[in-house]
Amino acid sequence: MDKDLFRKLLTEEVKSYKALLETQNNDWIVKGFIDVNKNVYGITTDTKVVSKIIEIILIPKLLLFAKRNGLTLEFPSAQNFYPDLTFKDREGNLFAVDFKSSYYRDDRKVNGLTLGSYWGYFRNRKIKKNTDYPYGEYKCHLVLGMLYKQGISTENDTAVYSIDELDAIKSVIEHFIFFVQPKWKIACDRPGSGNTRNIGGVTDIDKLTKGEGPFARLGEGIFDHYWMNFYNAADATRAGIGKPHYNNLRTYQEYLEKEHKILTELTK
């Protein structure tokens, strides 16, 4: 199976997930946690909690997807390993899929989206570094995006309900949007947050769902070169280069032009 076919199959699969996770009123089907006494506790809007619950619901569907298409689905051997999901076909081809979630506002902008590290396994693509397979062995690196709106918070957020009162519990999130895109197509030219070593993603929902980030027109090779040679301020100091060579696509182009000029002088 090639990467284009895999992406096509996964994109078709994900189209059913909105209906799986929403009520007819576009609310999340999950209302809370239940204990053995049938008490229901409301869920926080914390993005880590919400995203993990969504993933738990989707895993059985993705296992069926894999079986239906002659694939095996492997999970990382450690919690902080990349990627979240490894699909393997009968020929041994590997396809990486990472869950990425965020909430969005009325202006069709997500709160933020990080696309994984640009350090470690991303740069050293022939070794296993926080991965079960070297990064370079994967045929593609896809993002399964899960976007949602946060529900209106009420004073009863911390209330405890009985299981017979499910209809009275307001869902904490609603109006899901799912998409599948190659990581490089939705990446932006800035880190995900602060001085971290994470690749940032575009925040416009239309650009996310259509794969129209700034690297989409430049190609995957430019994306790889840009982020494999990107330094934040702290890493630039440790590497002895003073300050980062570039911090966006404009300064990246200026840096390449300067390097090209030096190379031209050397080859005269």
3D architecture notes:
Strand 4 and strand 5 (about 95-105) form a beta hairpin. The chain contains 8 helices and 11 strands. The protein is globular. The protein is an alpha+beta fold and about 270 residues long. It has 2 domains: about 5-215, ECO RV Endonuclease, Chain A (3-Layer(aba) Sandwich); about 230-268, no CATH class. The strands form 3 sheets. The chain has a 5-stranded mixed β-sheet. Helices cover about 30% and strands about 25% of the residues.
Helix content: 25-40%
* Number of strand segments: 11
Side by side, the strands of the main sheet go 3-4-5-7-9
The backbone outline, from C-alpha atoms, is: globular
Radius of gyration: 21 Å
CATH topology name of the largest domain: ECO RV Endonuclease, Chain A
What sequence of helices (H) and strands (E) makes up the elements?
Answer: HHEEHEEEEEEEHEEHHHH
Structural class by helix and strand composition: alpha+beta
Q: Strands, helices and their partners?
A:
Blueprint: H1 3-14, H2 17-21, E1 32-34, E2 39-42, H3 47-68, E3 72-74, E4 85-88, E5 94-103, E6 114-117, E7 138-150, E8 160-162, E9 173-182, H4 183-186, E10 187-191, E11 198-201, H5 205-210, H6 220-228, H7 233-238, H8 249-266
Parallel strand pairs: 5-7
Antiparallel strand pairs: 1-2, 2-8, 3-4, 4-5, 6-11, 7-9, 10-11
